[in-house]
Write a structure and sequence with these properties.
Blueprint: E1 4-6, H1 12-25, E2 30-32, H2 38-46, H3 54-66, E3 72-74, E4 77-80, H4 89-92, H5 94-101, E5 106-107, E6 110-112, H6 119-129, H7 134-161, E7 168-173, H8 176-179, H9 186-194, E8 197-201, H10 207-213, H11 224-236, E9 242-248, H12 252-262, E10 269-274, H13 280-298
Helix pairs in contact: 1-7, 2-3, 6-7, 9-13, 10-11
């Protein structure tokens, strides 16, 4: 059976558990690219132009790594979660960008709730493209989605429980493809944890709640994942000691939304912008100063 290649970037960090479970239950072989490293980053920069964000360069590096190791690249097209919940235009275009840059067959599905194209319909379409029958697709989808939801609920419960900690508490406001990537945010969160700081993640809250809470900052924001992030900040702003904003240069939605929120919050914050010239050493002094200041306030 043909092997599917799954790039470890962008939407992977939102839906990896759903996707891998779905492929497992359908008995479809797949390969996930390794954690981001310098080689992958170099390949991403080589296949990008200067205008795309750092996270996009990383993603394209993962695609480049996979293209000769699989039969199909798996690149979903995620447009919107209704008109007031859009995704970044770069991410909407990922499918087309990959098809134009790499000479490789691409598997995809569309998420466009404005036109009733749901994730369920998308995965059914994907299963049929893989030659599976509706009965087995239905069974795989139900079990994969159940497992995905259960793990998601456990992650949220664990994340929220940290708000009761006696430790210094810092909320990371960032997209998961930044927070958990080895060459973007992982060194920063590891640094905080190693200094006995409780790290809370903006992506590990109930998005139905945080999406609505974001409207308390502005009713005009329409980027789905940014609303989820800043809604998490509204959810716990009175229960944390500080906030670290992490974004990938030059992310348009982050630069707009984070700046708006920074002007309104009263919680101490640190704004870190990552690019392909960044290194953890360049942020360490700022992190040390920020956490020392919070420690004095906490005491």
């Amino acid at each position: 059976m043909n092997k599917v290649g799954m790039p470890r970037g962008i939407f992977y960090y939102y839906y990896k558990d759903l996707w891998t479970n779905f492929f497992d239950y359908l008995d479809v072989p797949y390969i996930v690219s390794p954690k981001t490293n310098k080689k992958i980053l170099r390949m991403g920069i080589k296949n990008s132009n200067d205008e795309v964000c750092f996270a996009m360069k990383v993603f394209l590096g993962h695609v480049a790594f996979l293209k000769d190791k699989c039969d199909y690249l798996f690149i979903p097209r995620i447009d919107n979660f209704k008109s007031s919940n859009q995704t970044c235009t770069n991410f909407l275009a990922l499918y087309d960008i990959v098809r134009n840059i790499f000479n490789k067959p691409v598997l995809h599905y569309n998420i466009d709730l404005e036109h009733k194209k749901t994730i369920k319909k998308g995965l059914f379409y994907l299963g049929r493209c893989l030659g599976k029958k509706d009965k087995e697709i239905r069974k795989a989808y139900r079990q994969a989605y159940k497992d995905y939801k259960e793990k998601r609920e456990l992650d949220i419960k664990e994340n929220i429980s940290k708000l009761k900690s006696e430790k210094l508490k810092i909320l990371i406001v960032a997209h998961p493809y930044i927070t958990y990537d080895e060459m973007l945010g992982k060194d920063i969160t590891d640094y905080l944890s190693s200094h006995n700081i409780e790290v809370i993640y903006s992506d590990k809250f109930n998005s139905k709640i945080t999406n609505k809470l974001a409207l308390k900052y502005s009713k005009d924001i329409y980027f789905k994942y940014n609303k989820d992030n800043i809604g998490a900040l509204k959810y716990c702003e009175n229960k944390i000691d500080g906030v670290i904003f992490l974004s990938a240069f030059p992310c348009g939605p982050d630069s707009l939304v984070n700046e708006l929120v920074m002007r309104k919050i009263k919680v101490p914050y640190l704004n870190l912008v990552l690019d392909d010239n960044s290194s953890f050493a360049g942020f360490e002094t700022r992190l040390e100063s920020f956490t020392d200041m919070l420690g004095e306030l906490h005491d």
